[in-house]
Amino acid sequence: MIALLANTRMALRALAVNKMRSLLTMLGIIIGVGAVIVMIAVGAGAKARVAEQIRSIGANLLILLPGTTTSGGARLGFGSAPTLFDEDAAAIRRDVPGVTVVAPLIRGGGQIVIGNMNWATVVYGITADYLPARDWEIATGRPFTTEESDNGAKVVLIGQTVAVNLFGAEDPVDQMIRVNRVPLRVIGVLDRKGQSMQGVDQDDTILVPLTTARGRVLGTSIARRRAVGAIWVKGEDGGDLKQTETLVRELVRQRHRLQANQDDDFSMRNLTEVQDAEAASSRVLATLLAAVASVSLIVGGIGIMNIMLVSVTERTREIGLRMAVGARGRDILAQFLTEAVLLSLIGGVIGIAIGVGTSYAVGHFAGWRIELYPESVVLAVGFAAAVGIFFGFYPARKAARLQPIEALRYE
């Protein structure tokens, strides 16, 4: 310990002799450590953002969408033809094992009016199973009852965005609103979901019972009264959602009397696969950002090696004198290695301060999600110390292997 303290004092004195050179030598480490912290913070923030969006959609979900139709020779895409019906949802609920919730829905636009305030939003006609399928909680009030859903009650749940724009700080529960001129009573406010992975505000919506939406609010035609715009299917936790997807596809094809050579007249999305892909992309992004930032640390380490080699050359006579009065090779090795590590650690501390400050500045001015973890700071400092040891060892070893007589003769 005494030897370490002595080496540290000597190293600090040696670094103080050429302050500007020492600062320039540390610059690579400062930039590298700061960049690592900023990149990890940005990458972790992006990963956390994706995780929030994934959780906001719901877990273990399959979404069935209606098929296509053709108009004037042009295919209009999935959802343009009424090929999914209430009976399909009932059959999936009844016949497919591993399914916990099945929620058919329809969707349309709506103009909400209360007093002299109005707001245009998306109207979903849902059953009581929709909220459990989406893992969507109620912030205030209560959800639909099964009786309200089946009997077409004039009730509505509103999202946070709608509540803020129509009611401000006032409690919307038990208030009457008109949606497409239909009076509905607000029975609850949905918990906040935020943006979806497509950037859509999930809170800018209202939910009404499916029968109410069909018969009153959205005015679905008689020919399509049993048609639905989508069917959300929630699998069991820990179950094989891929197997459930296969069983659902087979059942719906059988119900629609499709032959083996015929394409599906519906589409199905496995959100777990989408979520896994998004999470993998986020991990790759974070890794790439950290790898790019680490290059700066390596460049800084090369700078330390270069300066330490110059220092060994400049101080050859000093090394010879120390060896002549009894210093051993390992003492010289420890001295120069301590200088290299101190250069890295001091640069690392400055880099931490710059990196943390820059991370918060990026989050504040750019509006990005930033996640700072103590582990990233420890990793950056540890890496800086490792760089000092790795790139400082060769110059230190070169100094330790000098012969005293040759070192004293050096001019």
SSE layout and pairing:
Elements (H helix, E strand, L loop, with lengths): L1 H16 L1 H39 L3 E6 L3 E2 L2 E2 L10 H10 L3 E16 L2 E10 L3 H5 L3 E4 L4 H6 L3 E4 L1 H8 L8 E4 L2 E9 L14 E5 H8 L12 E6 L5 H15 L10 E5 H44 L1 H9 L4 H38 L7 H27 L3 H6 L2
Description:
- This protein has 411 residues and is α+β, with helices and mostly antiparallel strands.
- It has 2 domains: 2-53 and 278-409, no CATH class; 82-264, no CATH class.
- Helix content is 56%, strand content 18%.
- A 6-stranded mixed β-barrel has the order 4-5-10-7-9-8. It has a two-stranded antiparallel ribbon with strand order 2-3.
- The radius of gyration is 33 Å and the shape is elongated.
N-to-C CA distance? 35 Å
Using the CA coordinates, give the radius of gyration. Answer: 33 Å
Number of domains: 2
Give the overall average pLDDT.
81
Strand tally: 12
Question: In order across it, which strands form the biggest sheet?
Answer: 4-5-10-7-9-8
The biggest sheet amounts to: 6 strands, mixed, barrel
Strand content: 15-25%
Q: Quickly give the structural class.
A: alpha+beta
H and E order: HHEEEHEEHEHEHEEEHEHEHHHHH
From the structure above, extract its key features.
alpha+beta, 411 residues, 56% helix, 2 domains, six-stranded mixed beta barrel
Question: In a few lines, what is going on in this structure?
Answer:
The protein has 411 residues and is an alpha+beta fold.
